[in-house]
Amino acid sequence: MVFTRASTVDAFVVATVAIVASACSRSATMVPQPATAQPVVSRPAPARQLPNEIRWFRSSTEYRALTRQAFQVATDRLPELARGLAAQSWAVILDADETVLDNSEYQRRRAVMDSGYTESSWAAWVRERAAPAVPGAPELTHAVHTLGGRVAIVTNRADSLCTDTRANLQAAKIETDVVLCQPRGESDKNPRFQRIQNGSAAPGVPALTVVAWFGDNILDFPNMSQSARNDPRALAEFGKRYFILPNPMYGSWQQLREP
After folding, report:
1. What class does CATH assign to 52-249?
2. Domain extents in the chain
3. What is the distance in angstroms between the CA of the first residue and the CA of the last residue of the chain?
4. Is the pTM for the entire model greater than 0.70?
5. What is the pLDDT of residues 91-143, one digit of tens each?
6. What is the SS3 assignment for 221-243?
């Protein structure tokens, strides 16, 4: 076949177009495609680790053993402490919170929220009337009544919360004869201790001989304070008439400076 100039040019053009088209086609296939969007998986935040003091109070066997030990030692001492006293003429005084009522659920909730005590949250908790008994407390109050004594609760819960407090004590099977909450401005318990002893605590409650005190804070005992830590003589009544319950979660000790 004979090629003319024109046919040669036409052939060249056709070939060039074919090459360019092929290159464009390859380029199109090589353009990166957007990655397929992956679904976002929502993972729950890891549970906040509770402070050791709350974990110990809520979970440890040691805590339960210590509270039962304190109440058992006291129960064993009561016949001697009440010897010679007429029935219904003597009493024991107990604090409420962390002495006979366990509020560690409130502490747990606040820790999970990374928040501390507030008056409003505390009042809401008290109104739930949900605090269980400290292990051994119901048995101690029952033993007092069996021996002919009375049970007085002296607590710094506000007077406005006293109805709920009495209901919670009853639900927790803490047997009580009188419950004295905190009058406005009277955080010192000593005046209320005196009212129980002089017969002005409540209508129908006579003057009572107090044979034992129970608490989780040194301020739950007559005329005691944190200064007693350096005076062994001031602590001589513990295990005899004074019985203390463990509470590493809060207390007047928090105001102390480290040595």
Report:
1. alpha beta
2. 52-249
3. 113
4. yes
5. 999 999 999 999 999 999 999 999 999 999 999 999 999 999 999 999 999 99
6. CCCCCHHHHHCHHHHCCECCCEE
